[in-house]
TrEMBL record:
It comes from the Eukaryota. It is a multi-pass membrane protein. The chain crosses the membrane at residues 12-32, 242-265. Keywords: Membrane, Mitochondrion, Mitochondrion inner membrane, Repeat, Transmembrane, Transmembrane helix, Transport. GO terms for molecular function: S-adenosyl-L-methionine transmembrane transporter activity. It comes from Daphnia pulex (Water flea). This is S-adenosylmethionine mitochondrial carrier protein.
Amino acid sequence: MATETSFNTSFHNFLIAGGIAGISVDAGLFPLDTIKTRLQSPDGFVKSGGFRGVYSGLGTAALGSAPTAALFFCTYENTKRLLNSNGFFTIWQPIVHMTSAAFGEVAACLIRVPVEVVKQRRQAGFHSSSKHIFRSILQLEGIAGLYRGYMTTVLREIPFSFIQFPLWEGMKSFWSDAQGRPVSPWQSSVCGAVSGGIAAAVTTPLDVAKTRIMLADPASIEAGGKLSLVLRSIYFAQGIKGLFAGIVPRVLWISIGGAIFLGVYDKALVTLNS
């Protein structure tokens, strides 16, 4: 169980376990992510590629998944360790988990956002290769183009983590107390699936806005990255249905992904620590 082993776990093990978890999810569930992106695209599902080439952009995602997940878990676990070392916070575990997750997401987005920008444009059929997209962004928009949607992504990930991680840790703790021993990796997977699915459903509008910003034409208003403006624009054009575009594949993807991601992470930590 991660919450019980983290005080005896090295920085090196957090890196490895996080990296393994990240690659496992992105490689296994990439088609669902592609379908979700195309459903949210302003060009529509069919024009963005439909069900064709659902593995477009997999190389970019795989390249970024390990360092992103590793950076998240290193920050998450060490922030949690720091807060728990102060006796005041030990009685406020949900606050500890929420704060640790928030710091983890801010750090992870430094890698995640450039990867997402390139990956989603590849998924939406903008160019024939991720390399071409990367070069095009640098030529037309500079480094800032790779970080388009950074704040929107952070504003999506923090509420998501505020819901997912306290639920995940809380369910594991409840299950552990009920059976009188730490949860096993498969039980951690079940907790990850439930907590991830709930968080995914609630934060779908933020994910839709993030996708629109990343796919927007550089000269458009949406490319400016103002979250409230984009959400309002989507609502007036498509209503509630537009704000929750892609909710089914998103919930499926993150529920299954949460099971794999958090289950593999706990299993990897147990294995490395032994």
